[in-house]
Amino acid sequence: MRDATRQTVVWEALRAVLARRSAAAGRDTLDIVDAGGGTGGFAVPLARLGHAVTVVDPTPDSLAALERRAAENGVGVKGLQGDVADLGDLLEPGGADLVLCHSVLEYVDEPAGALSAVRGVLREGGAVSVLAANSVAAAVHRALAGQFEEARRLLAEPPGRWFSREALAGLLAAAGFTVTEVHGVRIFSELVPGMTAESDPEALIALERAAAGHPVLRDIAVQLHVIAHR
Q1: Which helix (H) or strand (E) holds 225?
Q2: Distances (CA, A) of 94 to 31, 74, 143, 189
Q3: What is the dihedral of CA 162, 167, 173, 179, to 10 degrees?
Q4: What is the spatial distance between Cα 155 and Cα 222, in angstroms, rounded to a whole number?
Q5: Which of 29, 78, 136, 212 could form a disulfide with 54 if both were Cys (CB 3.0 to 4.6 A apart)?
Q6: SS3 38
Q7: What is the value of pTM for the model shown?
Q8: Nearest to 179 by CA among 127, 214, 221
Q9: What is the largest CA-CA distance in the chain?
Q10: CB-based contact 209:9 (threshold 8 Å)
Q11: What digits encode the pLDDT tens for the residues 2-24?
């Protein structure tokens, strides 16, 4: 259920970005980089849509699984070993229309540097899709688990592996991006009991879709999905 909810909200935003970029660029095939794309959960479906996709990931096993998944789906996806900070060394500057940076900033030593590297490989007008863990949601869920002191610390000074909406937008702005969309991902699905969620999954996904852009509810989502442009 969580994967389905995540896929629905994020994919709807990505499809809109792809349509706009294709129209602006005057071509159907876009150059896409998935930084930290792992085994190709997003990369392979994007390649199936006809786009040229490159995955940069530090883990050889993940890249091997990506190659197998791409072959099973009859598409080609280029895999390169490296970290998001290495994008400038691995890829042509200004060669990408879209960069995915999903669940990456939580694990890098310097998120600001990672976003600068992302900007360097984007064409003018290109977009970045950032998916990051939300510090507000982390505090809520710890409080619900009775971890009140840890929840308080997260609200006061969230560590690098969680981001508030303001902090994430600030990092992107400092790297030279213009934030155009912010969505909440997994808002209700993490709060309702599992049996309740499974009783009507389609209705829950519809609720998540409706809540994704709500200016209050998105701030308690487990993940924040931000679209920004160079």
Answers
A1: strand 223-229
A2: 10, 28, 44, 38
A3: 80
A4: 14
A5: 78
A6: coil
A7: 0.90
A8: 127
A9: 54
A10: yes
A11: 566 568 889 999 999 999 999 99
